[in-house]
């Protein structure tokens, strides 16, 4: 089972039960501890990752995992604040990319070796794409489960469109940045889309 498939199965499983433990999920999905823990950790809601949709109750033994239930207004506010907040950051990243200064290791034996600066920039952009996908996924989930009040359905459609438009805008901007070597362009794409949520939903969103 691939990691995108496992991620989808974990999410669907947690939507159908009140809660579940790591051992229960490992037995259901026949996966390794590392794969299961890494996916859950990446999507767990914490103070530093407020947009995660998996909750953990570690006051029980063993810990219980569940899907967060929240009102749609909270998600709408997250979409508004996040999309507005990333404009300035993205502008700075685009400026650095346009100069192509020190993105790749000059003395490396392989042209696929990004420099520390290159990795920092593409890690940051990849996480932004990942977060936009996460918001888009939450909106789709709430719509499919009829969890959006009737008076906010049109707002949810607008929020979803904003997510997809921003995602497409970032992709188009990256594709229009001139890269001298084709193999370097391929290296950037491989590095950029390494985050699981982006890989899982890329084809269906742009």
Written account of the structure:
The chain has 2 domains: 3-67, Arc Repressor Mutant, subunit A, CATH 1.10.10; 72-201. 63% of the residues lie in helices and 4% in strands. The chain has helices spanning 3-16, 22-29, 33-43, 72-85, 87-99, 116-144, 153-175, 182-192, 196-201, and strands at residues 54-57, 64-67. The longest helix has 29 residues, at 116-144. The two termini are 25 Å apart.
Strand residues, percent: under 5%
- Indicate the structural class: mainly alpha
What is the number of beta strands? 2
Strand order within the widest beta sheet: 1-2
Q: Major beta sheet, specifics? A: 2 strands, antiparallel
Mean pLDDT: 79
Please, what is the oligomeric state? single chain
Number of domains: 2
Key terms:
globular; two-stranded antiparallel sheet; 206 residues
Strand-helix topology:
Blueprint: H1 3-16, H2 22-29, H3 33-43, E1 54-57, E2 64-67, H4 72-85, H5 87-99, H6 116-144, H7 153-175, H8 182-192, H9 196-201
Concise synopsis of the structure shown:
This protein has 206 residues and is mainly alpha-helical. The chain has 9 helices and 2 strands; from the N terminus they run H-H-H-E-E-H-H-H-H-H-H. It has a two-stranded antiparallel sheet.
């Amino acid at each position: 089972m691939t990691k995108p498939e496992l991620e989808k199965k974990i999410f669907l499983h947690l939507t159908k039960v009140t809660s579940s433990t790591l051992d229960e999920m490992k037995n259901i999905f026949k996966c390794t501890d590392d794969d299961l823990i890494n996916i859950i950790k990446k999507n767990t809601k914490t103070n530093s990752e407020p947009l995660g949709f998996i909750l953990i109750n570690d006051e029980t033994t063993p810990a219980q995992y569940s899907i967060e239930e929240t009102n749609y207004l909270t998600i709408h506010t997250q979409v508004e604040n996040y999309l507005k907040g990333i404009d300035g950051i993205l502008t700075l990243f685009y400026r650095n990319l346009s100069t192509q200064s020190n993105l790749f290791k000059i003395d490396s034996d392989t042209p696929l070796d990004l420099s520390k600066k290159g990795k920092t920039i593409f890690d940051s952009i990849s996480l932004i794409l990942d977060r936009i996908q996460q918001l888009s996924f939450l909106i789709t989930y709430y719509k499919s489960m009829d969890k959006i009040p009737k008076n906010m359905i049109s707002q949810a459609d607008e929020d979803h469109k904003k997510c997809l438009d921003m995602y497409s805008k970032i992709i188009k901007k990256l594709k229009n940045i001139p890269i001298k070597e084709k193999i370097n362009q391929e290296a950037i794409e491989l590095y950029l889309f390494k985050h699981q949520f982006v890989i899982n939903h890329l084809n269906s969103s742009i």
